[in-house]
Design a protein that fits this description.
15 helices; mainly alpha; two-stranded antiparallel ribbon; 2 strands; Farnesyl Diphosphate Synthase
Length: about 300
Amino acid sequence: MNLADYQRGCQTRVDAALEALLQAPSAELSHLYAAMRYSVTNGGKRVRPLLAYAACQALGGAPERATAAACALELIHAYSLVHDDLPAMDDDDLRRGLPTTHIAFDEATAILAGDGLQALAFEVLSDPRHNPLETEVRLAMISVLARAAGPAGMVGGQAIDLGAVGHKLDQAALETMHRHKTGALIEASVQLGALASGHATAACRAALARYAAAIGLAFQVQDDILDVDSDSATLGKTAGKDQANDKPTYPQLLGLDAARHYARALCDQALEALASFDARADALRALARYIVERQH
């Protein structure tokens, strides 16, 4: 399949829905919504929405059934980036080649924008006007996303990351951190897409969970490689930041060549998990390869 064409189609669908969600309901909220919109629409590969759409398709679901999930995932992802970039966290001035939200606006507005994006994600999943699926499916989606975004997932991973600065971690500890910080939301993307399909059997969800666990970790390994092996112009964010901040990474732990080999092995694990799926899962297969081959 042509991943670029598939990506464009999915991006068009989710971007239109996000644009509608991010219109200020009153003049008093225009500044806040401008910051929220800036944080979501300033580029981005939309990997998490793509995974949701692809997982829905793999199980025979119509793509529009996954749009609410795709929006919610991107809103949570954008909120996490806004907060990660703050001076109290990673203190970054550049994101996707543009000033970070707290630089483009101000720190207080960035905090509120992140809070607003997080809350809006759960509104999208819970409101049948946005997510017209069965009540029990909507509830399951909320549970999956809340766990992935909270202390059992992304927030917990960020806390582990902050505590690991300046410390030497072994591979098991590094993987625990990244399965929380990066992998949890990627795994949720696949699970939300499966739930949206209306055909998510236990066996299918188990296979997709194995796929998602592998690509979630591969995504972070490749991020670590690019932090060493690329430049700020290509990445759209500050290159070499992890090394400068003495953060534990896969190239630091394994060496650059071994880290690349590990990313490819994780991709192979993901593809193996999809062995029982037919051609409808080809978008998931293409995304697994993309994750370890991307250059930004």
